Structure formats: structure tokens, C-alpha cells
């Protein structure tokens, strides 16, 4: 044994190299980071390019201008123009919203044909009596350009007339009266229209129209051969640019005039007087006789003259004064009258004495 004792070194363990499996994982991870970095850079560049193109197209997209709206009742007509140059749209949409609200809706009339350099378009689906904002939108893909906004106020139909009343004035004529509408719906009343319909049908027939008169009382004289003996319904409506109002209604039955009087007998009474007697008419079409009117003329000469003036209601005879001297011949006669008018004359001939 020497001066120094022998030192025993511990056996050293060799450092094991990275396993093949760990190396492959590390290499894949480093590659993924590199690819992700390259992809992120490409996406950022693409986004910048896309935003630049979007901004460019939006800036140069042809946007409708000079938008003008004209209103007639519930109908609005829009006209506009597209500028020259720039990116033309592939779609034009008409849009609306109730005035002051934020959400725009495409009007049913959309996707207008192109090119539309000055396209008038009529919108007839707006609600009457409202205020709406309107605009025209250019569209190219997902890029939009909007025109200026125009605000329109549409009219509604008038209020309904009231108190329709009917009065017969002849065999085919009557007078309709009513009270004016209580409002014009925001557009002046252009006319009143009187119509009739048979029961259990919807086929209204116009009898006549008239311009509104000043004041609240309106009337229309009608000459129309309504079906005799059948109840019909009449209505009067007010019309403006927005359309027809609701109606005021009344029922009406048209009758013909009475038939001829089958028996009539005249008798001279002396002193320039004669007595005329008669029977009831052959028919009255279900409409009661209201009057009998008597007439006279020199026999065979010209038209009969009304003698009774306002007619006879309660009996079937009348004493009549004959104006000429003795032995003058007279035709004296009578007509039956109902609400439809007078029937034909029946007469007899007498000689004054």
C-alpha cells in the first residue's frame, strides 16, 4: 500500500442519446410552428387584400342617385339614375321601412333588370295613411351601396258616406241622397259612386257617379231600369286616389207604373159641368195606387191638360168644369199613379150643354 490510499472511482453511466421517437415528435412540433406562422402571415395578407378590394369595390360601386318619389293615393312611383363608370351592380333592390325605424326590408319588387340608368318603378303594396322611408340599393356580391332616402306619406281611402236614402221619381228613375264622408283619407274625394246588387250575389253594377258637392248633403239623379218587383240593395261609396271607401247601404224595390183603367164613363151634367167616373186600374205591379189624375181636352185636339192638379186620392170620380159653350165636345180622362209614375190615360167623350 502506498503513501496514498487508492481511490475507487464510481463507474460513470453514459448519457443516453435522444430516442428516435422523441426526436420525431420534436421535429413535427417545430415544423407545425413554422407552418402555422407561414399560414397566419398568408391569412393576414389575404385579409388585407380582401378588405382593400372590398373597400375599393364599395367605393367604386355604382350607387343609385337622384332618387325621386311621386305619390298617388296608396301608390308610389320611384325614379333614379345610376352614375357612369365604376363597378356596375349585378342587383338592384327597392327597400322600405316605416319612417323612423331602423330595419330595412326588400320590397316585393326587387332584383330589377339591368342596366337601370333611369328606371321608374311603381310600388302599390304600401299601407295607406302611413309614412315610409324608401331607398334603392346597389348590390355586387356582398357589397352594397345605398341611395339617399326619400320619405313618402301615402293616403288612405275616404271615410264612408252615411244615411243613404232613395226616392222614386219615375218608372225608371230615382234620386239618391246621402251625407258626405267624414274624412278624405289624406287625398281629396274625387267622386261618389252609387251601385246596386241583387240579393245573394256579389256582382255590383254602377248606376251613376257624381263629383262631391259643397257641404254635407249629396245627391244623384239616377235613370236606370232596375228589375221590377225585386228588392235590390244600393250602396254609395266615396272614391279618392287610394280607392273606394266602405259603403252606405239601403234596400229598394222597383215597380212599374199602373196599367190602364178598364172602365171610364163621362156624363154631361149641364151648366158647363161633367161627371167622370172610373174603375181601378187593371194592375198596379204590387205598388199601391197613390193618386188619380184627371185630364181634359177639346175632343181629338192635341194633348190632354191636367185638370185635377194634385190628383184625387179617396174616390173614383170627379166633377169637371168645361170651359167652352154649349154643344162643345170634350174628351175627359184619368190616369192612375203609383210611386213609379202615371199609367196610360183612359177617357170618354162628352158634349157640353
Summarize the entry for a quick read.
With 353 residues, the chain is mainly beta. The chain contains one helix and 24 strands.
The CATH class of the largest domain turns out to be Mainly Beta
The rounded Rg comes to 48 Å
Annotation, overall tally of beta strands: 24
Query: What count of helical segments does DSSP give?
Result: 1
User: Number of folding domains?
Assistant: 3
| Mean pLDDT reading | 80
Q: Quick one: overall form?
A: rod-shaped
Report how far apart the termini are: 202 Å
Query: What's the architecture of the largest domain in CATH terms?
Result: Sandwich
Which regions are unreliable across 5 or more consecutive residues at pLDDT < 50? 1-13, 42-54
Biggest sheet overview: 5 strands, antiparallel
Corresponding CATH superfamily of the largest domain: Immunoglobulins
In which range does the helix fraction lie?
A: 10-25%
Structural class: mainly beta
Strand % is 35-45%
Q: How are helices and strands ordered from N to C? A: HEEEEEEEEEEEEEEEEEEEEEEEE
The CATH topology of the largest domain comes to Immunoglobulin-like
Protein traits:
353 residues; Immunoglobulin-like; disordered N terminus; five-stranded antiparallel sheet
Describe the overall structure.
The protein has 353 residues and is mainly β. The protein has one helix spanning 20-60, and strands spanning 65-72, 75-81, 91-98, 105-110, 121-123, 131-140, 143-146, 150-153, 162-168, 173-179, 191-197, 205-210, 217-223, 231-240, 243-244, 248-253, 264-270, 273-278, 291-298, 305-306, 317-321, 329-338, 341-342, 346-351. It folds into three domains: 65-153, Immunoglobulins (Immunoglobulin-like); 162-253, Immunoglobulins (Immunoglobulin-like, Sandwich), CATH 2.60.40.10; 264-351, Immunoglobulin-like (Sandwich), CATH 2.60.40. The protein contains one helix and 24 strands. Strands 3, 4, 6, 7 and 8 form a five-stranded antiparallel β-sheet that branches. A hairpin with a 6-residue loop joins β3 and β4. The protein is rod-shaped and about 145 Å long. The N and C termini lie far apart (202 Å).
Amino acid at each position: 500500500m502506498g503513501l496514498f490510499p487508492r481511490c475507487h472511482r464510481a463507474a460513470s453511466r453514459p448519457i443516453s442519446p435522444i430516442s428516435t421517437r422523441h426526436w420525431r415528435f420534436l421535429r413535427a412540433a417545430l415544423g407545425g410552428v413554422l407552418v402555422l406562422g407561414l399560414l397566419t402571415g398568408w391569412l393576414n395578407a389575404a385579409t388585407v387584400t380582401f378588405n382593400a378590394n372590398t373597400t375599393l369595390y364599395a367605393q367604386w360601386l355604382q350607387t343609385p342617385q337622384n332618387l325621386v318619389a311621386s305619390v298617388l293615393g296608396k301608390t308610389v312611383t320611384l325614379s333614379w339614375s345610376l352614375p357612369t363608370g365604376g363597378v356596375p351592380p349585378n342587383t338592384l333592390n327597392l327597400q322600405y321601412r316605416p319612417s323612423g325605424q331602423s330595419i330595412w326590408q326588400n320590397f316585393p319588387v326587387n332584383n330589377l333588370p339591368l342596366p337601370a340608368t333611369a328606371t321608374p318603378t311603381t310600388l302599390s303594396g304600401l299601407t295607406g295613411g302611413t309614412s315610409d322611408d324608401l331607398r334603392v340599393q346597389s348590390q355586387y356580391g356582398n357589397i352594397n351601396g345605398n341611395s339617399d332616402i326619400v320619405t313618402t306619406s301615402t293616403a288612405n281611402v275616404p271615410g264612408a258616406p252615411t244615411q243613404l236614402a232613395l226616392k222614386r221619381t219615375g218608372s225608371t228613375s230615382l234620386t239618391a241622397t246621402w251625407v258626405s264622408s267624414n274624412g278624405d283619407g289624406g287625398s281629396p274625394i274625387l267622386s261618389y259612386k252609387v251601385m246596386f246588387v241583387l240579393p245573394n250575389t256579389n256582382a255590383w253594377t254602377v248606376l251613376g257617379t257624381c263629383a262631391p258637392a259643397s257641404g254635407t248633403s249629396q245627391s244623384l239623379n239616377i235613370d236606370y231600369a232596375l228589375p221590377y218587383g225585386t228588392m235590390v240593395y244600393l250602396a254609395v261609396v266615396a272614391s279618392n286616389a287610394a280607392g273606394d271607401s266602405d259603403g252606405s247601404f239601403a234596400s229598394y224595390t222597383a215597380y212599374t207604373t199602373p196599367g190602364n183603367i178598364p172602365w171610364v164613363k163621362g156624363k154631361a151634367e149641364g151648366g158647363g159641368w161633367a161627371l167622370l167616373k172610373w174603375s181601378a186600374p187593371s194592375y198596379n205591379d204590387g205598388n199601391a195606387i197613390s193618386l188619380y189624375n184627371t185630364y181634359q181636352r177639346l175632343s181629338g185636339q192635341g194633348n190632354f191638360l191636367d185638370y185635377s192638379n194634385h190628383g184625387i186620392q179617396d174616390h173614383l170620380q170627379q166633377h169637371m168644369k168645361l170651359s167652352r159653350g154649349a154643344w162643345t165636345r170634350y174628351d175627359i180622362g184619368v190616369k192612375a199613379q203609383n210611386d213609379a209614375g202615371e199609367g196610360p190615360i183612359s177617357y170618354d167623350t162628352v158634349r157640353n150643354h
